[in-house]
Amino acid sequence: MAHLRLGDIAPNFTVDTTEGEINFHEWLGDSWGILFSHPADYTPVCTTELGTVANYHGEFKKRNVKPIALSVDGVASHKEWIKDINETQNTTVDYPIIGDEDHKVAELYDMIHPNASEKATVRSVFVIGPDKKIKLTLTYPPSTGRNFDEILRVIDSLQLTAYHKVATPANWKDGEDCVISPSVSNEQIPEFFPKGHTEIKPYLRMTPQPNK
Question: Which end of the chain, N or C, is less packed with Cβ atoms under 10 Å?
Fold first, then answer.
């Protein structure tokens, strides 16, 4: 059983989806990815989640993020269920849904938690970088739908902190001040952060978001 941790290479797989057969790493290319699992087709919470992701198409695209969903039902079932999602959520599902009847991908990513549900996958989320490494994991129980605004917020932080020597404070949103990384000395601040900074404590230094 896989126990995937942050920084691990996301396991690759070749699988049938609602958009044909894909090799996961090849499909990702140089994009970021979000792989998220669902307990089953034709379930109410999942219907709202898949519709929400489709409605957030523009938000994912401008962040260079490709979403891909999974449930342990087959592709034919997924394709019929998409009709319900599009109708009830007023959207068009335009990303692949993996058919995982043999649980191959669910087991690779440890998505089945027997004490929560013996056969169904829990609501797992994996954010994967262009380097194919896992940047974030989240696990929700089947009864709780995910907050995709929070997932977008985390992606904004991951993409910012990957390229700048900052971290993001509690409840941070894109455009707000950031924490200067401890690895940056006070002498280096003008070089890295020409917008200036505020020192609250020697270890707590704030600066305007550098990529805005």
Answer: N
